[in-house]
Each structure stands twice: as structure tokens, then as C-alpha cells.
User: Which sequence fits this backbone?
């Protein structure tokens, strides 16, 4: 069966600091749903605007030694989009965390995106239904906020409910935010 093309998977990889790193070939269903939900929201808002969203599968060449494949991204500089990938810095990158990628996404890739000048970076955790948003300020990522859906069994005080934010703003536009319920729709 290993020789049967129907059973062969395309191995996907990134290059981080000059080292080839294999990516997980089969993301979990919740991982894919979150990517699709975010991309759908980005696509709906950005239709007809200058910036363009991309979903998982597009190579991004950031340095001579770094080629990444973000889960979702927004690019506003059309000139960096080429047939073989993106050759430059996306404006916003989303990484959906999984056990196999979380350390890289929070570590090397976060540092790489910061040094490269990515304006906004989201770390999305499907299991806890949380989104960490980092904004680039003075060439450093600053945690803007953590947006989270609280399970029904968590009791929040009136003050906590007042501070709870149910939508994640996209800093590239003043009037664009995505409800958490839309990001985490249909998860198991």
C-alpha cells in the first residue's frame, strides 16, 4: 500500500533558521475548522479591499533561512505576492496551536515574526477557545489581550462580565472585529 499514490501524503515542511522542520500532515478537525472560520471572516470583510487573506498552504519567505506556512494571514502589500509564494512580511499572521507546534509558534516563530515586522500576530487555542493577540509596538510584540469563551460552568462576577470581550478586533481596520463564537463555531 505504501507505493499506492492514494495512500501517499505530501510531506509539508517549513525552514526555520536554516533547518527543515516537517509539519504535521493531518491537522485535527477542530484545527481545520478554526482555520476555515477565521479565513471565512477575513475573506468576507476584505472582499473588494486592498488587503487579501490567505489560508494554510502558502509559503512565506521571510529571510534566507526562514520559510513558514502560517495557518491564516492577511497581506496588504500586493507586490510581495508571487506565483510560488509570499516574498516579504504579511501584515497579520494567525497560528492555530496544536500540541506538536505550540512550542515553535510561541517561541522561534513568534520571535521571527516580531523581528520581521509582522504588525499583528494571533495565537489561537481551539481546546480552550482562546485567542492571544500581539501587536507590534516599537519593533516588539506586546500582548494586546487574550480573548476567551468561558464554559457555561464558569461563573463570572458582574465586574468580570463587564470586562469580558466577545469579539477579537483586527487592528488593520478600525471597524473590523470577529465574534469569538464565529471563530470557534462547530468545534467538538
Assistant:
Amino acid at each position: 500500500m505504501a507505493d499506492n499514490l492514494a495512500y501517499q501524503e505530501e510531506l509539508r515542511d517549513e525552514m526555520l533558521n536554516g533547518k527543515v522542520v516537517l509539519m504535521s500532515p493531518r491537522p485535527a478537525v477542530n484545527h481545520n475548522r478554526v482555520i476555515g472560520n477565521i479565513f471565512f471572516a477575513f475573506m468576507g470583510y476584505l472582499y473588494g479591499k486592498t488587503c487579501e487573506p490567505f489560508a494554510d498552504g502558502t509559503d512565506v519567505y521571510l529571510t534566507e533561512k526562514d520559510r513558514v506556512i502560517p495557518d491564516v494571514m492577511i497581506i496588504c502589500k500586493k507586490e510581495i505576492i508571487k506565483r510560488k509564494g509570499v516574498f516579504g512580511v504579511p501584515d497579520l499572521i494567525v497560528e492555530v496551536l496544536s500540541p506538536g507546534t505550540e512550542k515553535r509558534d510561541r517561541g522561534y516563530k513568534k520571535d521571527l515574526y516580531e523581528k520581521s515586522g509582522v504588525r499583528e500576530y494571533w495565537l489561537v487555542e481551539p481546546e480552550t477557545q482562546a485567542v492571544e493577540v500581539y501587536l507590534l509596538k516599537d519593533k516588539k510584540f506586546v500582548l494586546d489581550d487574550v480573548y476567551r469563551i468561558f464554559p457555561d460552568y464558569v461563573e463570572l462576577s458582574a465586574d468580570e462580565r463587564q470586562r469580558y470581550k466577545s469579539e477579537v478586533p483586527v487592528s488593520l481596520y478600525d471597524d473590523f472585529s470577529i465574534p469569538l463564537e464565529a471563530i470557534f463555531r462547530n468545534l467538538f
